[in-house]
Design a protein that fits this description.
By secondary structure, the protein is α+β, with helices and mostly antiparallel strands. It has a domain of 151 residues. It has 9 helices and 11 strands. The strands form 3 sheets. The protein has a 5-stranded antiparallel sheet with strand order 7-6-5-9-10, with helices on one face. Strands 1-4-2-3 form a 4-stranded antiparallel sheet, with no helix packed on it. The protein has a two-stranded antiparallel ribbon with strand order 8-11. β2 and β3 form a beta hairpin. It is globular, with a radius of gyration of 20 Å.
Length: 298
């Protein structure tokens, strides 16, 4: 495909996304969830008797307002949870600064490499080097604190997080992020692991069970490569223990960890894997994964 051919397609995708989000923002929560589910998965969810993993995520997004979820999308609070529950087993990236005004970083001593992100949102990150360039950061982080993005997707727990920015230490070598291990924990037991490669350019996720046996399923939106080789991490047993300790008491929680060889590092937790619209191949895997999850009685 030539560059001239790609431009109209990219423009069409942008226009389609703008129309989609414009409609989504105007809908009440329950119609909004049906709309998003139908657009992404080409079917209607059963929210009265959820069976699949995506249906159960959607049910949680609409109806579950328990206190234990309230802190699950607050990056600073989840660090404290990891430290309390898995002390001595996992390293938690230190918070070097938090606040609403990046101008304060001019007076903050920063290491050679650091990471800036919002405490109450996902998908936004800045990798910093040495002293902060305040003018650049003001431009890049404009709207990061003020915008209330949780309403677009209905992920309520983000609304409970403190709307501030934070700077934390970098995990792994600069320019070479460690593999991202995402543990799917149901009722305190790891049932699935997703290993992410190419996080910042060509995302690919490989699925394994709790014994690190490959699972014949994938995210349908990703293109896997035969050349990719994913081996059992050195600290896999400890990572499983860490994930289960952190997720103890939750009916479902995803726990993200890194293995740098010498240490296991905490990444984050999320109660809303894939926003309830994750496309699996084969499609039956959605129901298989959902069978591990017993929803609470509210």
């Amino acid at each position: 495909m030539t560059g001239k051919q790609r431009k109209p397609r990219a423009l069409a995708r942008q226009c389609g996304a703008a129309v989609y989000h414009g409609i989504e923002r105007r809908l009440p929560p329950i119609p909004q969830r049906y709309f998003a589910y139908a657009v992404h998965l080409r079917r209607v969810p059963n929210l009265r008797n959820p069976r699949t993993f995506n249906e159960k995520i959607s049910w949680r997004m609409l109806f579950d307002r328990r206190d234990l979820l309230a802190m699950s999308c607050d990056k600073i609070a989840m660090k404290s949870l990891a430290e309390q529950r898995a002390s001595g087993l996992v390293r938690v990236p230190r918070v070097l600064w938090s606040g609403r005004d990046v101008g304060e970083l001019a007076e903050t001593s920063l290491p050679d490499h650091w990471v800036l992100k919002p405490n109450h949102r996902s998908g936004l990150v800045h990798f910093g080097h040495g002293p902060a360039n305040i003018d650049r950061l003001r431009v890049e982080t404009r709207g990061w604190v003020d915008e209330v993005k949780w309403r677009d997707g209905g992920e309520w727990a983000y609304s409970q997080a403190d709307p501030v920015l934070l700077v934390e230490e970098l995990v792994g070598a600069p320019g070479s992020p460690p593999l991202d291990y995402k543990f799917e924990v149901f009722d305190g037991k790891v049932q699935l692991l997703i290993v992410h490669l190419g996080r910042f350019d060509d995302l690919r996720g490989y699925l394994f069970d709790r014994n690190f046996n490959a699972v014949a399923a994938q995210d349908a939106s990703e293109v896997l490569r035969e050349s990719d080789i994913v081996t059992r991490p050195k600290n896999f047993g400890r990572m499983v223990e860490v994930a289960e300790r952190i997720a103890d008491g939750y009916d479902y929680l995803r726990v993200d960890l890194y293995d740098t060889g010498d240490d296991v590092w905490f990444g984050e937790i999320t109660p809303y894997e894939g926003g309830g619209t994750q496309r699996f191949r084969p499609r039956s895997f959605d129901e298989f994964l959902g069978s591990y999850w017993t929803l609470p009685t509210l």
